[in-house]
Structures are given as structure tokens and as C-alpha cells.
Specification:
By secondary structure, the protein is α+β, with helices and mostly antiparallel strands. The chain has 8 helices and 10 strands. 27% of the residues lie in helices and 31% in strands. Keywords: DNA-binding, Transcription, Transcription regulation.
Length: 259
């Protein structure tokens, strides 16, 4: 019989239930970083076979919640960890986090139309003329849709992204629509056929400003991970520019290089 902590009739695989329980305990500090999670202890606790235990630990390791010490066992990584692998579909971070049971929220804290700065004009190649958008296209003189979000996991803020988008005329989503769908790119693909092809990233370490510190619930000057992303639609057309800061203790970004 499985442990009372598990619900075999819920339809959720046992390994997923075990993984979610351990992840919550790691995030809230219940699981101490010096105490190994041994298969023997977990077998005794959850009263299941070895297969779901090993699967849960394997996925927790892949997502950055635990690490293995040779000959000593598996240990928790303190804090709530968000591991963003390289193969997450562009614009689909919210869905990725939700699929892993991390209870993400993506609150729109700013939504406006803005004139492009010189830097944005260059990055988005606005002076090259209209882009090939279904349902209408922008000219160099059109404004950009500026969206600011606060992304949280299990109620803990982890990132504050701002994105500037070149969008078709008539695309004017509300904050509620953006929060419901998790990404403006989801709506653009559904309503206007704009599909992202690839993105380019610049990543560096920085210190939290007063505004960033307040949003992410950290002290001013705390280390943050900054990522700027230029999104390209099919055909190499620049569709959007995102600037985001992330809590450095909570967010891990994985890159893959190929020959």
C-alpha cells in the first residue's frame, strides 16, 4: 500500500506525486541541504516500488532541485529552482512551468503603446519598412506594444520581463487576455499566424536596482541574472525584444552549442 501522502486513484503518476512533494519540501526549506535523499529512506516513506522513486529523483536532478555526490547520495539544492532547458518552445515558458507542477503565475504589471527608442529601432530593424505580418503590418513610424510582467513560481517572484513587440494593426490584447494565455506570442500565432522561428540571447550578471529589488523581493544590490532576447519570426524578421531580470538563486538557464 502506498503512503498516505500519495493518492493512487488521482490519475497522477506516483513518480510525479513523489516529485512534487519533494520539490515543495526543497523549496520551502523542509528538506535540509545536508540531509541526503536516499532511495532506502524514500522507499520506506512512500511505500512504493523503486521505479517511481528513481524516476522522481532523476527528474528533480534534471530540473536542478537535487544533485548527486559520488558515493554519498542525492542532496537537495536549497531554494525554489527554475531550470529552463534549451528546448523549451519560444514564448512557452509559462506552459513549461505549469506542466511541471510549479504553479506559475504571470501577472501583467504594465501594458502600453510606446514610441521605439533608437536602440529598439535598430534591434527590431524598424527602418527597413513593414514586416510580413498577416492581417496588416507595421511601418517604421508605428508604436510598439510594451508589456511588463512579474512571473512567480509557487507564489515566489522569480523574474521581471519587459517585451516590446511589432504587431499587426488591430492586435490590442487586454491584460486579462495576456495573463490567461501566458504569452502574447500565443495570441499572435492563433489570431495572426505569426510563428516564432528562433531567438538570440545575451546573458550577464547584474545587481538589483530599487525597482527590481521591490518586484523580486530581494535586497537592493542583490545578484540577478539579466537576459536580453531578440525574437525572430519565420524568414528572419525581428518580431520582438525582451529584457528580463531573474532571481539568481532561483533561475537556471541552459544553453546548447552544436558543431
Amino acid at each position: 500500500m502506498a503512503s498516505a501522502e500519495l493518492n493512487p486513484s488521482s490519475g497522477v503518476p506516483l513518480y510525479r506525486q513523489i516529485k512534487d512533494i519533494l520539490r515543495r519540501e526543497i523549496a520551502d526549506g523542509t528538506a535540509g541541504p545536508e540531509t541526503p535523499m536516499t532511495e532506502a529512506l524514500l522507499l520506506e516513506r512512500f511505500e512504493v516500488s523503486l521505479a517511481p522513486i528513481r524516476q522522481a529523483l532523476r527528474e528533480l536532478a534534471t530540473e536542478g532541485y537535487v544533485y548527486r555526490k559520488q558515493g554519498k547520495g542525492t542532496f537537495p539544492v536549497p531554494g525554489s529552482r527554475v531550470h529552463r532547458p534549451a528546448d523549451v518552445r519560444l514564448g512557452a515558458l509559462h506552459d513549461y512551468l505549469a506542466d511541471r507542477g510549479l504553479n506559475p503565475t504571470s501577472n501583467v504589471i504594465g501594458l502600453e503603446w510606446t514610441e521605439p527608442t533608437d536602440r529598439l529601432r535598430t534591434a527590431l530593424n524598424l527602418d527597413s519598412g513593414p514586416g510580413p505580418l498577416a492581417g496588416g503590418s507595421l511601418t517604421a513610424d508605428d508604436r510598439l506594444l510594451h508589456i511588463t510582467r512579474l512571473i512567480s513560481v509557487d507564489g515566489r517572484p522569480i523574474a521581471r520581463p519587459e517585451v516590446h513587440l511589432r504587431v499587426p494593426r488591430g492586435f490590442d490584447p487586454t491584460a486579462a487576455e495576456l495573463e490567461e494565455h501566458g504569452s502574447a506570442f500565443t495570441l499572435l500565432e492563433r489570431d495572426h499566424g505569426l510563428v516564432l522561428d528562433h531567438a538570440e540571447h545575451d546573458v550577464w550578471a547584474t545587481e538589483a536596482t530599487a525597482l527590481q529589488a521591490e518586484a523580486l523581493a530581494v535586497a537592493v544590490g542583490s545578484p540577478l541574472l539579466a537576459i536580453e532576447t531578440l525574437f525572430f519570426a519565420a524568414g528572419g524578421w525581428p518580431a520582438g525584444f525582451r529584457s528580463a531580470v531573474h532571481r539568481a538563486d532561483d533561475f537556471k538557464y541552459r544553453f546548447v552549442e552544436r558543431r
